[in-house]
Amino acid sequence: MSHLGGDLTAFVDGELDHAARERVLVHLGRCPACRGEVDLLRGVKSVLRSEPQAPDDLTRRILASSAAPGLPVLVPRPAARRPGLLAGHARARRTAWGLGALALGVGGALAVAGPPPRAPVAPVDPTSAGFVVEHTSTANEVPFAGTTAVVPVADPLPPR
Amino acid sequence: MRRLRLAAALTGLGALICAGQARALLPSEPLVDETLVIARSADALALLERAALLAQARSWSATQRVVSLASGAPLVTVTSVQHGVDGHGAADALDPRLFSLLATHYELRVAGQALCAGHRAQVVEVRRPGLRGVLAGRFWVDARSGLLLRREVLNAAGALLRRTDLLDVHLASPAATLSTTTTTSLHGEHLDAAGLAAMQAAGWPTPRALPGGLDLYEARWLPDEVLQLAYSDGLSTLSLFVQRGVMPRLSTGMVRTVGGGQVWQAAGEPERVVWASGGLTWTLVSDADPALVDEVLLALPHTGSALAEDGVAPRVWRGMSRVGTWLNPFA
């Protein structure tokens, strides 16, 4: 697991600002695990961008259209399959492959998701004492925070 | 504000007239007689309103002591307070607007006289409406100066929640003006009914009432685009501060779940609760009973997480989108 979370994918994509990029670079200088993850992400990105795979049926159609009339059509032979656990159950096999691909897709998407988009942040820190002062001023009461002295007592005054 | 005070004054005048009739009926009428209850409330309300007017009309200084039991452990706050006739009061402890709310939500009566910090005072009892009439608060009004010396607020079970005492009261001559050191002037702009309607039209929440009889009595538009809504039942007060935007991740305090969403609660008093919902950040500040504050919290919107958590579905979608951009040679 990366120590920098989604920042690594944002780093690979060049989406970090200067300060965040410097922080990632400093961390990468000390962390071989994160360097390896950056290499892996760069490799995946490079493969996806530079070597798109054409589907089999597209290859077959291209070969058929380019063949001369009267000559046999060259068709790539599929690799021989060894009978396995699910041999003879093509539907179950397809389902298993589909589920596997889905799991890989979800896992891969989670891995490269990156940091959440930045939402607009409240302009005033809601935890500051300013709201307490505004509240007590509105209610015409003395605030508990600020310059007043707050001291615990052992026994509250009994109601009369 | 003026309308509220005028209404309160008219209520007091009308009730004073009823009071004379009610006193004549006192020996023979049962205690549940509605006319008698109204008359008693009017007597008590007039006494409190007179105390508020006197506190505003005179210059005075005192030591204010607040004992609060809201968080379980008692807290005592001692402050030096001053009031000048020029209107620069540091802390008045009495707001005439709250008395009209008090009379709306509670039954008032003058219970008699008692000593309060060595002063002879008239005691006004505030009881919850209904046959049982559980005590909700008490006021001690100085028989000599007419000023309010003590105020107590009790919770729904009748236990003391907060007591405010005005000690060592010194009245200045009517012409004198006391200098103030800790002025609590209000910031921002007051919003009247039209202003509130405009805010509501612009998508801001403006509930006119909250559970527990808390009615909206003041609304302000504060700097940095913060909407403040102040509520009270006449005894306790509660403010909501609403801002656009998500609250920042908080590292202190306590996080708990309310109404399906997470809220952040600060330690200490007054009670402070912060949460985010619907693109807004809400901050609640209140001196009310914590059980009542929880009722209010449940009634307010809580959609989504207060800490802007990153869920699985958005992360998967974001990851898929990112892979999509990698596959796009024109990106």
Range of helix content of chain B: 25-40%
Could you report the average pLDDT of chain B, rounded to the nearest whole number? 77
Separate helix tally of chain A: 6
Uncertain runs of chain B: 1-34, 87-93, 177-184, 305-309
Q: What percentage of the residues of chain A does DSSP assign to strands (E)?
A: under 5%
The largest chain-to-chain contact, stated as pair and per-chain residue counts, equals: A-B, 53 and 82 residues
Tell how many strands the DSSP assignment of chain B holds.
16
Termini gap of chain B: 60 Å
Shape call of chain A = elongated
**Protein structure class of chain A:** mainly alpha
Please tally the β strands of chain A and state the result.
Answer: 1
Quaternary structure: heterodimer
Radius of gyration of chain A: 32 Å
Distance between the termini of chain A: 64 Å
**Rg calc of chain B:** 24 Å
Describe the 3D structure.
The complex is a heterodimer of chains A (about 160) and B (about 325). Chain A has about 160 residues and is an all-alpha fold. In chain A, about 50% of the residues lie in helices and about 0% in strands. Chain A has helices spanning about 5-10, 20-30, 30-50, 55-65, 90-110, 130-140; one strand at about 150. Chain A is elongated and about 85 Å long. Chain A starts with 6 loop residues before the first helix and ends in an 8-residue tail after the last strand. Chain B is α+β, with helices and mostly antiparallel strands. The relative contact order of chain B is 0.10. The N and C termini of chain B lie far apart (about 60 Å). Residues about 1-35, about 85-95, about 175-185 and about 305-310 of chain B have low confidence and may be disordered. In chain B, strands 8, 9, 10, 11, 12, 13, 14, 15 and 16 form a nine-stranded antiparallel sheet that branches. Classes of the chains: A mainly alpha (about 160), B alpha+beta (about 325). Chains A and B meet through helix 3, helix 5, helix 6 and strand 1 of A and strand 1, strand 2, strand 7, strand 10 and strand 11 of B.
